[in-house]
Design a protein that fits this description.
heterodimer, A: mainly beta, 7-stranded mixed beta sheet, 4-stranded antiparallel beta sheet, 51% strand, globular, B: mainly beta, 3-stranded antiparallel beta sheet
């Protein structure tokens, strides 16, 4: 059974930092590009970042560029998101999602971890 | 990159068909055949329903279908069922710089 389990979401003050993790199981992790997608409370989905299977290509949404860093450890079947200089508008449920290499959709999704940026 | 435009809500009676539109630009929907659709029930993670405009993943009912014309993609649910009541989001690849853009989301109500 495919599982993506996010963790690391907490309440943090504006300007603070946080590292999210996503543990993958049930599929061949290094055959998949991985993404972070977020959803603000009561709002729609917003793509955040992508890392290819080998980390060779990385992309970010303009809203997080320069503040967030995506990374992965294929030996640990894990995906990460380092979030710096957090803003109140970063408050959201953060999902990790997987895409088969060279496809352009999200096959698998985790249940999300909630990040709240508030003073 | 602006979100793709979807109607806020659509509704239909059981057995009827509903269609959700997803309007973008030539830089996203119109430029690539990489439109996907996701179903999201309250408190749940999104689920892939359609990919590459009109392909259905294994396990998704045949009543879900997708299409595209120009800068507008569409999801049609034929033979609407109670369990189809959910939020639906389209998503398009938008090139290596922008990567992906989601739609604004549509709430489907089964009357």
């Amino acid at each position: 059974e495919v599982q993506l389990v996010e963790s690391g979401g907490v309440v943090v003050q504006p300007g603070g930092s946080l590292r999210l993790s996503c543990a993958a199981s049930g599929f061949i992790f290094d055959n998949y590009a991985m993404h972070w997608v977020r959803q603000a409370p009561g709002k729609g989905l917003e793509w955040v970042s992508l890392i290819t299977w080998d980390g060779g290509f990385i992309y970010y949404a303009d809203s997080v560029k320069g503040r967030f860093t995506i990374s992965r450890d294929n030996g640990k079947n894990s995906l990460y998101l380092q979030m710096n200089s957090l803003r109140t508008e970063d408050t959201a449920l953060y999902y990790c999602a997987g895409s088969t290499t060279w496809t352009y959709h999200f096959d698998y999704w985790g249940q999300g971890t909630l990040v709240t940026v508030s003073s | 990159q602006s979100a793709l435009t979807q109607p806020r809500s659509v509704s239909g009676s059981p057995g009827q068909s509903v269609t959700i539109s997803c309007t973008g630009t030539s830089s996203d929907v119109g430029g690539y055949n990489y439109v996907s659709w996701y179903q999201q029930h309250p408190g749940k993670a999104p689920k892939l329903m359609i990919y590459d405009v009109n392909e259905r993943p294994s396990g998704v009912p045949y009543r879900f279908s997708g299409s595209k014309s120009g800068n507008t993609a569409s999801l049609t649910i034929s033979g609407l069922q109670a369990e189809d009541e959910a939020d639906y989001y389209c998503c398009s690849y938008a090139g290596s710089h922008t990567s992906y853009v989601f739609g604004t989301g549509t709430k489907v109500t089964v009357l």
